Amino acid sequence: MRRGLSTIVLVLSVSAAAASAEPDRLNVDFGSFPTGTACKVHGTSGKVSLRTGREIEFKVRGDTGNVSFTCTQPDGTSFLVRTGPLLPQGNFRLVAIQINQDNHAHIFWDQGGLRRSTVPGILDWQ
């Protein structure tokens, strides 16, 4: 009985680790927001790069499981986005998320072919 219980515990812990794996790289793109919108990244000790232009694009390498962003628009309106709950289950090298002003996100990852998920209601207006 003892061996059976320890086997079950081992299987459950491996399953939990696989389900909560975070990608090596996380790309987050804020598209269609007004010019002058500024965003800051929180919740990572990984390497973060930012590119601005028509869109605000963050690339995070390492420590990607609990990343969040606070953004302020030119009119003073601000919002928070938590990307951790948006990450697909599994172990992926790269996950790309496009955050849209109409309060939804498109999540892209490769799983034997490009996969996509759309999640509504992701902007937490402050």
In short:
With about 130 residues, this protein is mainly beta. It contains 1 helix and 10 strands.
Textual characterization of the structure:
The chain is mostly beta strands. Helices cover 14% and strands 45% of the residues. It contains 1 helix and 10 strands. The chain has one helix spanning 2-19; strands at residues 25-31, 38-42, 47-52, 56-61, 68-72, 78-82, 94-100, 104-110, 114-120, 124-125. The strands form 2 sheets. Strands 3-4-1-7-8-9 form a 6-stranded mixed sheet, with no helix packed on it. β3 and β4 (56-61) form a beta hairpin. The chain is globular, with a radius of gyration of 17 Å.
List keywords for this structure.
126 residues, mainly beta, six-stranded mixed sheet, four-stranded antiparallel sheet, 14% helix, globular, signal
Helix and strand topology:
Layout: H1 2-19, E1 25-31, E2 38-42, E3 47-52, E4 56-61, E5 68-72, E6 78-82, E7 94-100, E8 104-110, E9 114-120, E10 124-125
Parallel strand pairs: 1-7
Antiparallel strand pairs: 1-4, 2-5, 3-4, 5-6, 6-10, 7-8, 8-9
